Description:
Layout: H1 8-39, H2 43-63, H3 71-81, H4 94-106, H5 112-115
Amino acid sequence: xxxxxxxxxxxxxxxxxxxxxxxxxxxxxxxxxxxxxxxxxxxxxxxxxxxxxxxxxxxxxxxxxxxxxxxxxxxxxxxxxxxxxxxxxxxxxxxxxxxxxxxxxxxxxxxxxxxxxx
Length: 118
């Protein structure tokens, strides 16, 4: 079967993995916002928080693209950054999982801890 086709089961698995990754990353952003806000003591600190939020909003908007034509690449990035695991993808065809892992290994973007820095 062509790995670019998504079965109904795969669409369900993909949606769950995608939504869980999005939720995990947003929760981490919220925790980082709290940390920055709790340590803010100057107007510059306030603007640092604004800049952080603006940057993360743009990153999330670009990263979380749920079009089936790009979902393999999206999952590869989420895997590389640690927002999903291979276990989260259980139920996808093996060739899709292999492509996701292979693409993830080739990405140079950092892990989720590196992406939360301000």
